[in-house]
Amino acid sequence: MKYPEVRNYVGGQFVTGTHPLLDVYSPGDGSVIAKVPLSSAAEVNAAVVAAQAAFAGWSALPIKERVQVFYRYRTLLERDIESLTALITEENGKVSAEARAEILKSMELTEFACSLPQITAGEVLAVSRGVECRIERFPVGVVASITPFNFPNMVPNWTIPNAIALGNCMILKPSELVPLSSTRIAELLHEAGLPDGVLQIIHGGKDVVEAICDHPGIEAVSFVGSSKVAKIVYRRGTAALKRVLALGGAKNHLIVMPDADVEMTSSNVVASMTGCAGQRCMAASVMVAVSETDHIIERMVSEARKIVPGRNLGPVISAEARDRIERYITEAEQAGAKVLVDGRKTVVKGKEGGYYVGPTIIDHVTPNMRIAQEEVFGPVLAIVRTKDLDGALKVENASPYGNAASVFTESGGTARYVMEHASAGMIGVNVGVPVPREPFSFGGWNESRFGVGDITGRGSIEFWTKSKKMTTKWNREHGTNWMS
Ligand code: NAD
User: Cα–Cα distance between 265 and 288 in angstroms, integer?
Assistant: First the structure.
């Protein structure tokens, strides 16, 4: 085994338990690289106890002191960027440039956390003579973050720096498919001076997630993953009277107008559908081609054919994922869609055990086909054709998801119309992957997000804190007024 058995992290110590172990595969060649424990409710409880013990001390520190840890953490991410990048490639499969981008984004997220003292300075107003109203923010308490396989470093860093800088103590439950990066996150935070017990990591699957939702000592749960599980977590966590923010899956529509710039559009759409092997919740999944767009589709086909699996396209996460993606393609083909670029049965020389799907572009998909409706999560683009823009928006609006939508056009009026009428939380204009950069928040609509608020940026502050409204009177005037 290339890596030692992955261990839980509780109270500042890596701990070995007696849990059943699951193999961790490297999707690039299918080899087993580690084993991860499938923990139970008992380990979640131990993590809560450790977090509760640390909370009084950590939350009492002024925020300016707490963020010092994250200044140091950011420099450690930068110092170790090469090894952290290589680890992501190994456990998740994404190519080196994509893995590196993940660390760069983690650094940006940490920079935002460092700015929280500036952003969260309270509000105060003299509402009448000698009487002041003020609002101050307080941490929620012990919180949990449950994360997916597709960004082993970045998604944990969506929540860890902000939640912890704001004074909370956290239990992280990483995806059991990619548990290795989280160990490095814990080590770097320890090196940066994070006190023991402020961050715990409990590995495992469903049992750990359910125990987190049920545990009365956990006040807030954030979740990122599929809509199916987001709904389970949202329902179960709120039933236990916790605040829950659960981000789900996606089916992002890119509307391409006939006036769109051919080169920019084709390269952006293809990059969006193939980046991270299409395993991004912001990936292009459906392209709605409005009217005469054959010239753009032709260019996209030649762009997609230039991509070399194993070199600039990584594998998907598992053999099951590969088989599922290929089934979607075959089913669409059998239903009458035309496969313009076919990534099925892709084999990379020297990595025959890897789970590769080549770029796939399917034209003449109709909105009622499964491939047009469900999240495929692979490097596959379904092209649905419509006569006009309203027809395209109708297709986009019908999706139960609502993470992102983009329009490619040279017309400001058309762009504005889509910005207003697309039913998604993040909109791009001539941008294939419209991820908001800090300080702007990340979060979708509809079945791509359950709960209120966003998971990063300013939008996350409300989720990770409780506000206290205080009214004080320090003059000696007697009597009452109309609001006393
Ligand atoms: P997933 O839902 O299978 O797993 C996410 C987490 O839930 C993991 O930690 C997993 O252990 C746990 N889990 C899995 N099944 C469970 C169950 N039945 N009960 C309780 N917990 C369970 O998601 P994934 O396959 O790891 O990640 C891919 C999905 O995540 C895609 O749908 C993608 O769109 C989505 N995603 C969304 C965003 C976003 O911001 N909206 C970001 C990244 C990924």
Answer: 13
Q: What is the pLDDT of residues 161-199, one digit of tens each?
A: 999 999 999 999 999 999 999 999 999 999 999 999 999
Atom of ligand 1 nearest to the CA of 148: 26
pTM: 0.97
Q: Residue 316 in contact with residue 378, Cβ under 8 Å?
A: yes
Pocket of ligand 1 (CB under 6 A): 146-150, 155, 173, 175-176, 205-206, 209, 224-226, 229, 232, 247-250, 281, 375, 377, 403, 444, 448
| Catalytic positions, written as ranges | 281
From 287, 288, 257, select the one nearest 272 (Cα to Cα).
Answer: 287
CATH 3.90.226.10 fits 252-400+404-429, yes or no: no
pLDDT tens by residue, 384-419: 999 999 999 999 999 999 999 999 999 999 999 999
Distance set, CA 218 to CA 52, 211, 407 (Å): 9, 10, 41
Q: Is 391 helix (H, G, I), strand (E, B) or coil?
A: helix
State the Cα–Cα distance between residues 363 and 67, nearest whole angstrom.
50
User: Between 1.10.443.10, 3.40.228.10, 3.40.50.1100, 3.40.605.10, what CATH number should domain 8-249+443-469 receive?
Assistant: 3.40.605.10
Q: Could you give the CA distance from residue 433 to residue 283 in angstroms, rounded to a whole number?
A: 6
- What are the extents of the domains in the chain? 8-249+443-469, 252-400+404-429
CA distances, 93 to each of 77, 107, 178, 315, 351 (Å): 20, 21, 10, 6, 12
